Automatic annotation (TrEMBL):
One GO CC annotation: cell envelope
Pfam family, one: SBP_bac_5
Compartments where found: Cell envelope
GO MF annotation list: peptide transmembrane transporter activity
Primary location group: other
InterPro entries registered for this protein in UniProt: SBP_5, SBP_5_dom
Species per Swiss-Prot/TrEMBL record: Streptomyces sp. SID7499
Lineage per the UniProt record: Bacteria, Bacillati, Actinomycetota, Actinomycetes, Kitasatosporales
Name of the protein in its database record: ABC transporter substrate-binding protein
Domain Solute-binding protein family: 3-117
Keyword annotations of the record: Signal, Transport
Homology family: Belongs to the bacterial solute-binding protein 5 family.
Length: 122
């Protein structure tokens, strides 16, 4: 017996397949939001003893702007984009409700997380 670690870097399908076949006991990140949602609602996954557990994460997805660009280099344009981004739709549609809207570069549960962006743009 013992512990074997296997890296599935960049190969989501192989990781999902190994998980479904019982070749791995745990997967941390690495699966797409769609795959996680499928595993969470799949009767096959439940039958095979696969359980999706949610928790806080330090992973952050964010937009980056070239401030030297003549359009998005303008603070007013970036603020307008911040107001217009529908974070709840992104979470629902893109992340299949496997994430939470983020209004800070520091996720909730991590020291330094604040609500200033939510207070302004939420």
């Amino acid at each position: 017996s013992g512990v074997t670690l296997e890296l599935f870097q960049g190969d989501q399908q192989a990781l999902q397949s190994a998980l479904e076949k019982g070749d791995v006991d745990i997967a941390y990140r690495g699966l797409s939001a769609k795959a996680i949602a499928e595993l969470d609602t799949s009767s096959t996954a439940e039958k095979d003893g696969i359980e999706v557990v949610q928790g806080n994460s330090a992973e952050v997805q964010h937009m980056v702007f070239n401030v030297d660009d003549p359009v998005v280099g303008k603070l007013a344009v970036r603020k307008a984009i911040a107001y217009l981004v529908d974070r709840h739709s992104l979470v629902s549609e893109v992340y299949q409700s496997t994430a939470a809207p983020l209004y800070s570069i520091i996720p909730g549960g991590i020291t330094g997380h604040g609500t200033s962006f939510f207070d302004t743009y939420g």
